[in-house]
Amino acid sequence: MPKFDDRGLLSAVVVDAHSKDVLMVAFMDREALDLTLETREAHFHSRSRGRLWKKGESSGNVLKVQEILVDCDQDAVVLECIPAGPTCHTGATSCFYRVVDGRTLQPVKT
């Protein structure tokens, strides 16, 4: 099982189950992991709000979890998911839609 840090959290990287594109990065606590395993929909721990949240709880853009992988140190997970819509709160498919180019951010070239 994954090992949570001293704050009870672990890093969670979400990738598209088909394309393997990175969609987002968030944190999970035990409750979020347990609910994700139970419902097969991604749940996370919001550090800023200090509470559990289900991805898509307000937008409807849930993440259907296909598989959960844990790294060799057991302190991070990868969630392979099928997104029901844009993953980013900005409406972008992925939260990673910009490239650091020197001192500016540029859109990802598609």
Description:
By secondary structure, this protein is mostly beta strands. The chain is built from one helix and eight strands; from the N terminus they run ββαββββββ. Strands 2-1-6-5 form a four-stranded mixed sheet, covered by helices on one side. Strands 3-4 form a two-stranded antiparallel ribbon. A hairpin with a 5-residue loop joins β5 (63-70) and β6. The longest helix has 10 residues, at 30-39. The mean pLDDT is 93.
> In whole angstroms, how far apart are the ends?
37 Å
Rg, alpha carbons: 14 Å
Give the spatial strand order of the biggest sheet: 2-1-6-5
Quaternary structure: single chain
Tell me about the largest β-sheet: 4 strands, mixed
Instruction: Give the overall average pLDDT.
Output: 93
Helix content: under 10%
**Number of helices, where a helix is a run of at least 4 consecutive DSSP H or I residues:** 1
Helix-strand blueprint:
Elements (H helix, E strand, L loop, with lengths): L9 E7 L5 E7 L1 H10 L3 E4 L4 E4 L8 E8 L5 E8 L14 E4 L2 E4 L3
Summarize the structure.
With 110 residues, this protein is mostly beta strands. It contains 1 helix and 8 strands, in the order E-E-H-E-E-E-E-E-E.
Highlighted features:
4-stranded mixed β-sheet, two-stranded antiparallel sheet
